[in-house]
Amino acid sequence: MADDRGNLTVLGASPSWQNAGEACSSYLVDVPGTRLLIDCGNGAFSELRKHCDYLSVDAIAITHTHGDHMLDLLPMAYALLYSPRALRGESRRPKLFLPPGAADRMRAIFDLIDRAELLDLAYDVVEYDPAEALPLPGLELTFAPVPHFVPTHAISVEAATGGRLVFGADHRPSQRIIDFARGADLLLLEATLMFPEDGVRGHITSVEAAEIAVEAEVDQLVLTHMSDELPRDQLLQQAIAIHANTTLAHPGASYVF
Hints:
Blueprint: E1 7-12, E2 26-31, E3 34-38, H1 44-51, E4 59-61, H2 73-82, H3 84-87, E5 95-98, H4 102-111, H5 118-122, E6 124-127, E7 134-136, E8 139-146, E9 152-159, E10 164-167, H6 175-181, E11 186-190, H7 206-216, E12 220-224, H8 232-240, E13 246-248, E14 254-256
Parallel strand pairs: 3-4, 4-5, 5-6, 10-11, 11-12, 12-13
Antiparallel strand pairs: 1-2, 1-14, 2-3, 7-8, 8-9, 9-10
Helix pairs in contact: 6-7, 7-8
């Protein structure tokens, strides 16, 4: 990094399935003292390796247990345990911060390949309390439940230098995310939909994301979780018309906060 501020690198910004040549949700956060991975969706581990040594990851925070946000914890676990360096005793167990009740669900997923024990062998598993701040060297994590189809938590990363990043994860329109993101320097919001869903909702459009950013008075909005089969440039321009400082996430994009 050029200075001591926080830095976010997009590893994957696909929706529930992978865009061509891309990974699903995963974001690498670097602050002095800590390297944090937010979500680890399918394809994310390969992208992570393009940007850093996976053994340098100190902690991983998972927003919810949908596959596009956590499935690559499995290949990463294999690398942490069985790579040549691991077999030489050079590996480490990063902290794995999971939503309440998620650890047993993750073990059940690993158990589908008869390796439930991999989760705890590879990671130092902790279920976070959404009501409590989680301090790490150089940053502090806070959480807010957001309305989705499964228990889901938005994550705030506040650097010791004062910059703040908020990742909304997946959610329908909600006052909760507006209040949680208020005043953030950098806000990542999903923009899964071209039009609002019928019935019970679990996602938002780019226009709704921009409206949230305006109400929350954030500096910069990054749209993510969007299919490459949508007219992404058009949807981005619709958002920019509402919140001028808006960009579209793409693999390798980097943002300072």
